[in-house]
Every structure is written in structure tokens, then in C-alpha cells.
Specification:
single chain; mainly alpha; Growth Hormone, Chain: A; 78% helix
Length: 426
């Protein structure tokens, strides 16, 4: 089944209306579901690196962050196929599949007898995130149409990353009271069951909304295959290349912070509860502020927010690496969240702007492939640098890469097209 096929389980294109107001019930449901998707990652942000170093006695930073490498690589490739599967199978089926794959993850983490089980659990988590998070983004963009993409993405990422932050704080607190396992991971069991149940019972597919948008589009796009979409989103189009490399570097520094920050803070004697607070502030700030930065990108354009956001992130990382006091780390976490909030929805909206609706899901999947490959590259490179030169050097090196990435966007990305229409790239 392709996106142009009819499907009796969804309304016809003539019976649907694009826009947030017309589709607010499904939109709100998808916001809630993505909060559960984000919560699945949040259970790991504080405790899993500490499980590796404290419970399994792993001394190598590179080996500790290996769980992020497995997560990042698998999630990247799950993202890559998610757009094609969404067009062929339907968005809902891919969303449900993502949740079914994610159900065993918290149980594997709770009962893992060796570090290999944690790495395997994160491979499954990568599939869960690559399919489920991709579908919540794609379906929201489908529902609202071209005029409110920044808002749609901002609300989606707000829910997901606020849940990451809240869960990171909650698991840090629970770990300080009850130990690293199993109590903090019980949250993940609830998220997985709730997300799967809501997706199966209440979500409706959105492919008819795409057909309606295609019918209203001012330019009819030629039929192009996945290989051509991959080339466009990866290197052939300067806007999409700029967005893809910035997305990769954004998640490169996020992967570094996920694996290195808890170990870096603990090396100065910081307790797990305060580490949990620092690990919560960054994604919570990132999540909350996207409610504002997403709509602002609709009004101001994407490029300025992306460039400034990358440079704010770099400043935050330099500050963290150069200091050894909690209040400076807290400021760094706030700045890192601010910079990421400026970048994240703007990049997804910029990719959507530059893609025809007939192949938008595939271009988003390619962008998300490169972006989430950054988790693996960031964690692995930071782990190697930390083992060779120390964790502060690892953080500083990633900060420098982040600054250069913002410079590339400033030099290559054209001013964003009007968010009220999509650009066709030939």
C-alpha cells in the first residue's frame, strides 16, 4: 500500500480538514503519547551510566557509553526506514510496532545480569524511539498542514523532552532513596504499557490529511524514489544538507552529555540526586521552551534560530567543561536546554518546508537518520577522548564541533521559505 492508495480505516481526503483547531483531539492524543515516548528515554538519562560504573564496575568511559552507541545506531536506521514504512503501511501501524518493540526494554534493564543486556535493551529502545517518535512528529505535521509546522513540532518535542527531564529527575530521586535498580525503572513499565494501549485503541491514521495537502499544493512534484530523497536530504540540497549536519551535531553533543555528564559530575563527588537534577534541567528547559521557539520559527524563519541555538549550546558546553561548581553546571544545563530548544523544532520545520508533501515523510526520516546517528558518534568519540585526555577535554571538544556546525548553517542555509507553503526541490 502506498500513500496514494485508499484505506477503509481512515476518512477520505475530501472529508478531512487541515489545521490544529480541526484536529485538536488527535493532536492532543499524539502529544500525550510522545510524552510516554520521551519518558522511555528519561529512565536512562541519570541511572544507566551509573549502573555501568557502580554495579558492573566498568572503568572505561568508552565501554560505559556503549549503550548509547547501540541506541543511536539502531535509532538512526529505524528513522531511515520509518518514513517509507509510514507511506507503505500507514502511520498508525508503524507507531504501534514501535511500542510493541519497546515493551521489553524496562524489564531488561531491571533484570539485566550483565552489561550486554543493557546494550541489547538500548538497541530495542532505539527501534522504539525511531519508529514511535518519528510517527508522532510526522502525524502532527500531517494534521496541521503547512502554516503551523513550527508550532506542531514545538508541541511534539515539548511533550517528549519535558517527559525526559521529569523522568530523569524522578529516577535520580528514586535511585537516591531505593538504589539504581529496580524501583526507578518501574516508571518505564508504566510508560510502555500506556503508550502502546493508547496507540492501539485511539490513534487514527493521517495519510488522508497528506492526500488533502497534496491536492491543495501549488506545484505537483515528480515521482522520486527513496534513493533520490536520501541524496537530496543528505548532500544535494544546501538547505537540507545544512539541516542534516546541524541535527547530527546537536545529537552528537546530546549523546556526549547523556553518557559523560553523570560520570563527570560524579567525579567531583556530586550525589546521584543532584546529578539527576542537572540531568533534568537540560531536557526540561529544552522541552518547555519549544512551545515558544516552534511558533517563533514560523514567524521569524528557521535559520537565525538554528545558528544562534548552536552557538548557545557551544557556550553551555564550554562553561560546563571549564568549571567545577554546581551552580555553574546548573547555568550550563539551562543554556544547553535553551540552545537546543532554539534548534530542534526549527530544524524539523526547515526540512518540512523544503520537502514536497508527497515525499516529506521520507525526507524527515533521512534527516532523523543523520540527526540520531549523532548519538552514537557523540558518545563514542567523547568516550575515547575522555579515556585519553579526561572528561573535561571531551566536553570541550564537542563544544568546538557544535560552534563550527552553527557556522556551517550560517554560511550555507538560505533564508527559509515561507512556512505557509512547501518548496519543491528538483
Amino acid at each position: 500500500m502506498s500513500i496514494s492508495d485508499t484505506d477503509a480505516s481512515v476518512p477520505s481526503a475530501s472529508s478531512v480538514t487541515l489545521g490544529l483547531r480541526a484536529n485538536w483531539r488527535q493532536f492532543a492524543l499524539l502529544v500525550l503519547i510522545n510524552a510516554f515516548v520521551g519518558g522511555m528515554v528519561g529512565i536512562e538519562r541519570t541511572v544507566v551510566p551509573l549502573i555501568g560504573s557502580e554495579e558492573f564496575g566498568i572503568a572505561s568511559t568508552t565501554l560505559v557509553v556503549s549503550f548509547i552507541v547501540s541506541f543511536g545506531v539502531v535509532k538512526a536506521f529505524a528513522n531511515l526506514v520509518s518514513g517509507h514504512l509510514a507511506d507503505v503501511w500507514g502511520r498508525k501501524r508503524v507507531l504501534v510496532l514501535g511500542w510493541l518493540v519497546g515493551l521489553p526494554v524496562p524489564f531488561m534493564i531491571m533484570w539485566a545480569p550483565s552489561w550486554g543486556w543493557i546494550v541489547a535493551a538500548n538497541a530495542l529502545l532505539g527501534v522504539n524511539q525511531g519508529l514511535a517518535w518519528s510517527m508522532t512528529v510526522i502525524m502532527k505535521v500531517d494534521l496541521v498542514g503547512p502554516k503551523s509546522r513550527g508550532l506542531a513540532v514545538g508541541l511534539n518535542e515539548f511533550a517528549g523532552y519535558l517527559a525526559v527531564g521529569v523522568t530523569a529527575f524522578a529516577t535520580g530521586y528514586l535511585a537516591s532513596e531505593y538504589g539504581l535498580r529496580p524501583v526507578p525503572i518501574y516508571l518505564g513499565v508504566g510508560y510502555a504499557i500506556a503508550g502502546a494501549a493508547l496507540s492501539i485503541m485511539f490513534v487514527r491514521d493521517t495519510r488522508e490529511h497528506v492526500r488533502a495537502e497534496i491536492g491543495n499544493h501549488p506545484v505537483e512534484a515528480p515521482a522520486i524514489g527513496f534513493r533520490e530523497v536520501f541524496a537530496l536530504a543528505s548532500f544535494r540540497d544546501r538547505n537540507l544538507f545544512a539541516a542534516s549536519q546541524a541535527g547530527l551535531v546537536n545529537n552528537l553533543n546530546d549523546g556526549m552529555s547523556w553518557g559523560i555528564f553523570p560520570l563527570f559530575f560524579a567525579s567531583f563527588g556530586l550525589g546521584v540526586e543532584r546529578i539527576g537534577l542537572l540531568k533534568a534541567v537540560y531536557p526540561a528547559t529544552w522541552g518547555i521552551l519549544q512551545v515558544a521557539t516552534g511558533p517563533l520559527s514560523d514567524r521569524w524563519g528557521r535559520k537565525g534560530l538554528i545558528v544562534a541555538g548552536m552557538w548557545v549550546q557551544a557556550t553551555a558546553l564550554f562553561l560546563t567543561a571549564a568549571t567545577s561548581q554546581f551552580h555553574y553546571w546548573l547555568i550550563g544545563s539551562l543554556l544547553l536546554g535553551l540552545g537546543t530548544a532554539m534548534v530542534y523544532p526549527s530544524l524539523i520545520a526547515a526540512v518540512s518546508d523544503a520537502s514536497h508533501p508527497s515525499w516529506r515523510a521520507r525526507s524527515l526520516s533521512v534527516y532523523r537518520f543523520w540527526r540520531d546517528l549523532g548519538y552514537a558518534i557523540g558518545a563514542l568519540s567523547a568516550g575515547i577522548i575522555a579515556d585519553l585526555f579526561g572528561m573535561a577535554w571531551a566536553i570541550g571538544a564537542i563544544a568546538a564541533v557544535t560552534f563550527v556546525s552553527g557556522l556551517i548553517v550560517a554560511l550555507l542555509m538560505r533564508g527559509s521559505p515561507s512556512p505557509a507553503r512547501s518548496k519543491v526541490i528538483g
